[in-house]
Amino acid sequence: MVRYGDLGFSSFEDFFYEFKNTLLMSNKTYDYFVDWDKVRREIEAHRAELSILNVLTRINSKDERTSELGHLISKYPEVVSTLPLLIAERIHNEKIDIFDLDSEEVVSLVFTPDAVEENSLEEIVDFCVKTGIIDLFGEIKDVIDYLLGVEVGLDTNARKNRSGNIFDKIVERRITKFIDDSCILVGQDPNLSLYKVIASGKKRAKTHDYVIYREGKPAVVIECNFYNTAGSKPISIAESYILMSQAAGKRGLKFVWITDGPAWLKMTEPLERAMSDIDWVINYYMINKIMRIIEST
């Protein structure tokens, strides 16, 4: 069971009450919403090509824009790689497969500087006409500004992964604040993994979110999870961490599960079950008790 006494509580009920009532309702920091560095990198990587395409925004006639696009591709074939970005399409293997309703066949278009050699110029221009890219050039004033907005939109798809990474970072910041000078916090330590024990058969064991070394020796293994919504994943994670806690104990290590989020308010039963078999389960605010865990016997 969670060692509530070592954490400064008189009973498990007091500990559990504190845990539930100090859960974070959000882990969204200001960095969560847009990865501006990534967005700007994407823009800078294509700035020259976008500047060339900007010529098309100053042509009123659709037919003239279509004709001019063909001329630009012939003279500057490198602009082809930027065309899918204008419709928020990340291409894989440098091509897009499209089902053409007229021919009832799949058409593969390559979007590399040598695309004109692999496709016909007419096919690329036709792609721009049918996807509305040609019309787009007549509706915007600056391709670079437009793509900035597209990249911001595409970046929102990465928020799910960013949410977990952000929780790890704020946990790291808080642990660093409360450990003393005898301790060193190491993230994704390649030299220590309990996954080798609980996930036998895998060629490469995962690393832990953090390991705390004290006086040069590993002392604490830490895993961090934040859950906004209830479901089967938090429950299965909790079950696997029971095994990890046992594996840590056999090696003279302490396993700490730092978990948080509003989902636990709807999953109190599986959380209590996990706490009955794991010595150290804390939330973000309870990290201020980390030295109690490190110094416990």
- The stretches of 5 or more residues where confidence is low (pLDDT under 50) are none
| Beta strand count | 7
Could you tell me the strand content as a percent range? 5-15%
Major sheet, described briefly?
A: 5 strands, mixed
Give, in spatial order, the strands making up the sheet with the most strands.
Answer: 3-4-5-6-7
Helices and strands, in order, run as HHHHEEHHHHHEHEEHEHEH
Q: Ends: how far apart?
A: 15 Å
Please give the domain count: 2
Summed over residues and divided by their number, the pLDDT gives a mean of 92
Give the CATH architecture of the largest domain: 3-Layer(aba) Sandwich
Number of helices, where a helix is a run of at least 4 consecutive DSSP H or I residues: 13
Q: Which structural class best describes the helix and strand composition?
A: alpha/beta
Query: What is the C-level CATH assignment of the largest domain?
Result: Alpha Beta
Helix content: 40-55%
Shape, per Cα inertia axes: elongated
**CATH domain fold name of the largest domain:** Restriction Endonuclease
Map the helices and strands:
Layout: H1 12-21, H2 36-45, H3 47-53, H4 62-75, E1 95-100, E2 105-110, H5 115-118, H6 121-130, H7 133-137, H8 143-155, H9 159-178, E3 183-187, H10 195-198, E4 210-214, E5 217-226, H11 232-250, E6 254-260, H12 268-275, E7 280-282, H13 290-295
Parallel strand pairs: 5-6, 6-7
Antiparallel strand pairs: 1-2, 3-4, 4-5
Helix pairs in contact: 2-8, 4-6
